[in-house]
Amino acid sequence: MKLETITELERFLNIQEQALGSDSPEVANTLTRLADLYFSKGLLEEAEALYRRALNIKEQSSGLHKIDIESTRQNLEKVLTRKRAPSQSRTPSSHVQWQTDSSTSLDAVPPSMALGWPSAFDQDKDKELEIELASIKHMMGLEHPQVADCLTRIADQYCRNKRYTEMEPVLQEALRIRERALGAEHPLVSSSLKNLARLYYFQKRYELSEPLFKRALSIRQKAYGKNHERYADVEEQYAKLLRKTGRALLAQDLDDHVKQVRSGRR
């Protein structure tokens, strides 16, 4: 099947996820192709999220060759290098897309947290996601992990349109499903915890955000160890919260560790 546009690949990706599961190596390959397209158009946030998710799947798939994993890693590094360049021209974006593990697009949430006005395209996207969610529930059951994956995509869509107040119950439901279906210590549970923690952080509800970040860190430490990029990803977010709540010295310690982890991956 010849798929050349972002829209075509996104539709194909949805079909693959429903048929093969969200952690299939074939899904990872499609994510990589989609990331390549976004990168070619200068949409760095979207490309980074897709490369990260593809890399996560490939790292957990024992049958894949190391060269394929390294290729995805190199593509991700190209995106990060481009993003670090201050003079780099970028396509305007009001959000940062999900991480590898279906994380929310909250890195650049405006402080006002005001509701946005969705475009016709976004309204169509909302309907598509609602249909997809209903279909997954019908085929897989109300408590299937793919329901949580779809809810996560819905939360991302809400974030794109600054509909932050609608995100909370959706993210809470995704977390609840993953905890029940996968167990409280599963890495995807840590992703849902991080998503909700970041939402609370940007809403300045720090007392709700902090315990979620801590729990996500605990899960990822057990799953990956402290010197893994996925641990550092949450650690970086938690450091921001510490700085906002007057604990700059501790935040600096975490930032230093994040830099060490990432420098070791290059």
TrEMBL record:
Its main location: cytoplasm. It is found in: Cytoplasm, Cytoskeleton. Keywords: Coiled coil, Cytoplasm, Cytoskeleton, Microtubule, Motor protein, Repeat, TPR repeat. Residues 80-105 are annotated as: Disordered. It holds the Pfam family TPR_12. GO terms for biological process: microtubule-based movement. One of its GO terms (molecular function) is kinesin binding. TPR repeats lie at residues 28-61. Residues 86-105 have a biased composition (Polar residues). It comes from the Bacteria. GO terms for cellular component: cytoplasm; kinesin complex; microtubule. Belongs to the kinesin light chain family. This is Tetratricopeptide repeat protein. It comes from Candidatus Obscuribacter phosphatis. The lineage of its organism: Bacteria, Bacillati, Candidatus Melainabacteria, Candidatus Obscuribacterales, Candidatus Obscuribacteraceae.
